Amino acid sequence: MNEPRIAVLVPCRNEAAAVAQVVAGFRAALPDCTVYVYDNASTDATAEIARGAGAVVRREARPGKGGVVRRMFAEIDADVYIMVDGDATYDARRAPELVAALVADDLDMVTAVRDDEGEAAAYRRGHRLGNRMFNGLLGVMFGQRPADMFSGYRAFSRRFVKSFPLSAQGFEIETELTVHSLELRVPTAEIAMRYRSRPEGSASKLNKWRDGLRILRTIATLFRDVRPLLFFGILAALLAVAGLALGSEVIVEYMHTRLVPRLPTAVLATAFMLLASLSLVSGVILDSVARGRREAKRLAYLAAGAVFTRGTPDGGESRP
Predict the structure, then answer these.
(1) Other CB atoms within 10 Å distance of the CB of residue 15
(2) Is the pLDDT of residue 120 over 70?
(3) Spatial CA neighbour of 68 closest among 12, 8, 150
C-alpha cells in the first residue's frame, strides 16, 4: 500500500507565539506531510514565523474560523487531512496515531478528545462544563453523544472533507463537523489526548457567551435542517397541547349549554390547533427535502473515493 498524502491544516489568527512550535511539531511527527498555515488576517508576525518554520502559508482576509476551514477544504488536495488549532495546545507527537487509526480502520474522522491530565489552566472548568452540556444536547437531538464536539484536533478522510457542506463562520465549525458525521453515519473514532496550556503570549479568541449562543443557534438550525420531522413534530405537539389547554373548557361548556361565551379563547385555541397542523405538515414535507439533501451529500461522499491507495491482489498498486 502506498503512503497516503497527508496535509496538516492550521487555521491561525495572531498566533506568533505558538505557530512555529506547531509547524515544527507536525513536521517532526509526520516527515512526509505538508503543513498549511492559513493566516486569518493576523496583525502580528504569524505568517512570517510560520513560513520560516517550513509551512506553506496562505492568507484568508475574512475573519472567522469557519471561513478559513471552508477555504482550506476547498483548496487542499490530499488523502488524509489533519486539522489542528495553531495555539500549540495539542500534542503533535500523537498525529501518527490519528493517521494510523484513520487508515487502518478506513475511518472518515478521528477526533482527539481533550484530557488536561490535571493541568486545570489548560481546560478551564467553565469550558469543560459547557462542552459536556453541548455534548449531551447533541446526543439527545441526533441520537449519539460525542465525547468532545469542540475538539480542534481531528483527522479526516478525503471523502469526508470533499462532501462537507460547510456554512459556519466562526467557532461553530466543530459542531458542523460532528453533525455531518452523525447525519451520514460515517465510521469515526475518538482518541483521548493530552491538552496543554497555551504558550505565553498566545491568547484565546473564544468569547464563551457570544460564541456559546452562536453554537446553540447552530445546533438548533442543524437539528431543524437534518431532522425536520422531529423538530416540527415537537413544535406541533407543543402547539396542540396549548390549544387543548385553552379549548378544553370551551368545548365542555359548549357541550352543556350549546353556547360559546368565551369567543376570544375559542379563536385562540383554534389558531393554536391550526398552527400545530401546519407545523406537522411542514415537517413531513421538509423531511422529504432533507432526505434528498442527505442523498446528495452521500453521493458526493462516495464520489470522492477511498482516502488511500491499496495494493491490488496481483501485487500492483491502484488508486480507487
Answers:
(1) 30
(2) no
(3) 12
**CA distances for 40 relative to 55, 65, 96, 100, 208, angstroms:** 15, 8, 27, 30, 20
CA nearest neighbour of 28 among 119, 92, 73, 117: 92
The rounded distance, in Å, linking the Cα atoms of 193 and 182 is 22
**How is residue 73 written as a grid cell?**
477544504
Q: Nearest CA to 78 among 304, 317, 312?
A: 304
| 156 touches 79 (CB < 8 A) | no
**Cell, residue 286:** 421538509
Q: Is 271 a residue whose pLDDT tops 70?
A: yes
CATH architecture for residues 6-226:
Alpha-Beta Complex (3.90)
How many other C-beta atoms are found inside a 10 Å radius of the C-beta of residue 221?
16
Domain boundaries of the chain, sorted by first residue: 6-226, 228-303
d(CA 290, CA 292): 5
Looking at per-residue pLDDT, the higher value among 163 and 27 belongs to 27
Question: What does the pLDDT look like over 280-303, one tens digit per residue?
Answer: 999 999 999 999 988 988 888 888
- Asked whether 10 and 88 are in contact (CB, 8 A), the reply is no
Q: Locate cell 488524509: which residue?
A: 80
Q: Which residues contact 205 (CB under 8 A, 6 or more apart)?
A: 13, 14
Show the cell assigned to 112: 482527539
3-state secondary structure of 1: coil
Q: Cα 102–25–11 angle (5° rounding)?
A: 75
Decide: 27 and 103 in contact? Cβ < 8 Å: no
Cell of 117: 491530565
What is the 8-class DSSP label of residue 179? H
| pTM as predicted | 0.81
CB atoms within 10 A of CB 111: 27
